[in-house]
Write a structure and sequence with these properties.
mainly alpha; 4 helices; elongated
């Protein structure tokens, strides 16, 4: 296999072992433009669940004071969970496609 394929795919698969560190290291160490683009896309996709954390926490805080608020808290946590699982699935699919296509 080509090194470009392996590094590009591992950037996406790194959501399981080093979500931020591996794509950043690959981005700054590798000279290949295509691999850098994949590292950047993988890093941005790894950041999506962390951007959604304040919204889930806001829903939990808003839901703490009332009876109807419990539903808001569950809704916020549910949306966060679905988003996180979606990002993981997207990274696995993108990693497989990257290894097969490049």
């Amino acid at each position: 296999m080509d090194t470009r394929k392996i590094l590009s795919g591992l950037c996406y698969f790194s959501i399981f072992f080093a979500p931020f560190l591996f794509p950043i290291v690959v981005y700054f160490v590798v000279d290949d433009f295509i691999t850098k683009e994949h590292a950047k896309k993988a890093l941005l996709s790894h950041l999506i669940p962390f951007v959604a954390i304040p919204f889930a926490m806001l829903g939990a805080i808003a839901g703490a004071g009332s009876d109807a608020g419990f539903g808001i808290a569950i809704l916020g946590m549910g949306i966060y969970g679905i988003l996180s699982i979606g990002v993981i699935i997207w990274n696995v699919v993108k990693g497989i496609k990257t290894i097969q296509e490049l």
